[in-house]
Amino acid sequence: MSARPTPSRRTVLRGVALTPVAGTGLAACSPGPDRATRALPTAPVELGAEGEVAKGGAKLYAEHNMVVGRGEDGTLKAYSTVCTHAQCSANKLEGTRLICPCHGSEFDAMTGEAVVPPATEPLTELPVRAEGGKIVAGPVA
User: Which of 15, 41, 117, 123 has the CB geometry, 3.0–4.6 Å to 79, for a possible disulfide?
Assistant: First the structure.
């Protein structure tokens, strides 16, 4: 006979009952198929016309997981929209606030800074330039 005590029926049933709950909690905080993140571009990506982003404004390019802001001086800045908290794709832009649907983190699209938790780290900045009247972001070819 084994020296270890055999778990009671109640202990086994509790473990079985709690396993799906723990799995659900983990799944809620991990990217699933509907929250899948795409890799950052490995080559320059043409986003749209240069005039699409007004001075002091921002534009979300969700299909490329990027947001572009233009300073009052005309300078363009681009950031990945992949949230630094749970790697979901932030998919809503209100003014210059980029909002992540997973846990409500918000980022300043002009600076990339996290302004509403739970995210605390800034978004990843991406190279961006105006070329031939178009906004081009991603690594330089």
Answer: 123
